[in-house]
Amino acid sequence: MYLSTTLSEVPWLLASDVVADAVEDLIATLGETTATPYFIYRLRDAMLSDTTGRRILRDRPRMTSKTIDVARLQQLPENTVGRAFVGWLEREGIEQDSRDNVRYIDDEECAYVMQRYRECHDFYHALTGLPVFVEGEVALKAFEFANTLLPMTGLSLFAVLRMKAAQRRRFWNTYLPWAVTNGVKSKEIINIYWEEQLERDVDELRAELGIETPPDLRETRRRLREERKAAQEKENMGEQRQK
Amino acid sequence: MRVWDGLSSRGRVSFDSRPSDGPIAYMTENQNITRGLLAALEQQAPVTVFDKTSVEDIQLGPPPDSSLSSLNLSSYPHVMLSSKQRIGARLLVGADGINGPVRTFAGIPTRGYDYDRHGVVATLKLDMPQDEEVETKAYQRFLPDGPIALLALPDGFATLVWTTTPQKAAHLKTLSSENFIASVNAASRLPIVDIEYMSTQPDGQTSELEWRSSINPANELERTGAVPRTIHSVQEGSIASFSIRLRQATTYTADRIALIGDAAHTIHPLAGQGLNMGLADSQALASAIIEAVEHGADVGNELTCLNKYNGEAWMRNNRMLGVVDKLHWLYSMRNPAVVAARGLGLGMVEQFGGLKNWFMRQAGG
Ligand SMILES: Cc1cc2nc3c(=O)[nH]c(=O)nc-3n(C[C@H](O)[C@H](O)[C@H](O)COP(=O)(O)OP(=O)(O)OC[C@H]3O[C@@H](n4cnc5c(N)ncnc54)[C@H](O)[C@@H]3O)c2cc1C
Questions:
Q1: CA of B275 to the centre of ligand 1 (A)
Q2: Which neighbouring-strand residues pair with B124?
Q3: pTM, entire model
Q4: Is residue B296 scored above 70 in pLDDT?
Q5: Closest residue to atom 37 of ligand 1, CA basis
Q6: Which residue numbers delimit the FAD-binding domain (chain B) (predicted)?
């Protein structure tokens, strides 16, 4: 059994927090164990359907601090994929880490696909410019969902249920439409041989894949915070004047 | 005989006859039948064979000549040969295939449609150790575009019937023999995603097969006979393709006309029934003619002879055409629910001896 959520079901579920809580518990327990094999097969087949994807599966490259040398990437010209990647690491204050080795998948090739998926995740952030806090992660998950039509990443949309009202509105009005249109129209990003793209112009790569960057989420949040602060101050001044 | 579903690991049936029952069905190359029939004809004098001659036209005989008390041939079809001979017939049997002139002359319409599929055929040599017993198995794997069948022939040969889209059939025919062989080997053992990928590549099938076989080894399956042996070579000039159609003439008979074989009906090859149906037609027609002759009736007359044939053959063929048409649609679906149901269905066939025997009898014809 696996759980899948179609986009049309999500708003309906949103209406009921009780359902949402129950479903979220269910997913926490079922998600990893049942959705993973299905998701991994879909992802592997997406790779097997593509020339570059097949080459990645033949070579099985790993991203470690040796193969992705941050110091070297910093030397690359402005606006290269490599620079965008280290720039994103810096902006988000993340140390480039080699991800845990995948252990629980028996099939060697599927285990590699999972490994690759994890190791590429940070590049997806760099490519889209989405930050790592929940709102950014959910938008990125929605993008991946639309891009690969995967149930597990679809499940992560339930995190939307946990968001504050303003965030949730922003998600429905801006990030979800962005994620769906871009995810569906762009090529499957699991088939990018990142190791070969580091010196490419990042905008050229985006154009080739058909990805537009979404509105800068950190910038939006900062602007909103300032607007709120300004409004607050105005109100405070008004109150003082009345006194 | 082994039948399995390319999209479901569960749907797998093996039809094995008990040693005491003899084989399920015999497979023979068409040329063997033709040779046999020609030899039999020679014993049946007086039969005249017009070799290397085609039918150029068919017309009714001239109106009766009032001055002479000769035979009225105006209702007899007359066949005009390329050798300029002209033959009037009491009964004209159209065994002239899907586009033959007899049905056109009789003005009998057909119903049906084209499947948008081509059947790629070839004669192949299997990879087999010299001293090994020749195995005579038939394999059929249902792929989403259509089944691929490998039918064993004597001396380690096999014949291929691979039903696929016209585009993919055309692509297969452009490949080098090595890549053609690799594609056939892949189609009989690799996952669908690999087969689809290989069908988009102009070259490199051999290397793709080698790599994917190392990831999904089929050695064990091959040893136990669950998948066919790998193909070693393809006979030069044997690769051809045909478009696949469903046709049924609205009737098989008219005054002084009988249609048999593909002239009367054409079927999807997934059940290998085309020729069987034609042979059954000729058997039914022959018995109707024998009966008419014994009773001194006119063999060209519908009421006294031909209706018996039409009544027997038309319905039986119509049922077979319907079943095979539904199988085609069932197996061309990729919907996971349908695939699961299919797996269950074939699983049930595998479990129940009775059902299996029924299918075996049908395949044997
Ligand atoms: C890809 C494919 C795979 C198949 N696989 C199988 C299988 O595994 N098993 C099976 O049982 N069946 C199979 N069939 C079906 C089988 O080939 C046909 O059912 C069978 O050949 C029909 O025989 P027929 O004699 O009625 O017609 P045909 O074989 O079409 O013969 C008609 C004959 O009439 C002649 N003719 C036509 N017009 C004229 C004319 N004007 N003058 C003189 N002669 C004329 C033609 O030259 C031809 O020789 C398959 C068919 C296809 C397309």
A1: 8
A2: B158, B234
A3: 0.78
A4: yes
A5: B96
A6: 82-297
- Rounded to the nearest 5°, which phi and psi values hold at A51? -60, -45
- Residue B315 pLDDT more than 80? yes
Compute the mean pLDDT over every residue in chain A, rounded to the nearest whole number: 75
Give the pLDDT confidence score for residue A3 in this predicted structure: 36
Residue B60: exposure state from Cβ atoms within 10 A (0-12, 13-18, ≥19): middle
> Is A125 annotated as ligand-binding?
yes
d(CA A186, ligand 1 centre) in Å: 48
pLDDT at position A67: 77
Q: Is A17 annotated as a binding residue?
A: no
B2 neighbors B189 (Cβ within 8 angstroms): no
Per-residue pLDDT for A151 more than 80?
A: no
Higher pLDDT, B218 or A185: A185
Q: What is the pLDDT of residues B97-145, one digit of tens each?
A: 999 999 999 999 999 999 999 999 999 998 876 555 555 578 889 898 9
Cβ-based contacts of B190 with chain A (< 8 Å)? none
Phi–psi pair at B333, nearest 5 degrees: -85, 140
Given a cut of 60, whether residue B258 has pLDDT beyond it is yes
B-interface mutation test, from A54, A55, A108, most B Cβ less than 10 A away: A54
**Distance between CA B227 and CA B220 in Å, rounded?**
9
- Reported confidence tier of residue B319, pLDDT bands at 50, 70, 90: very high
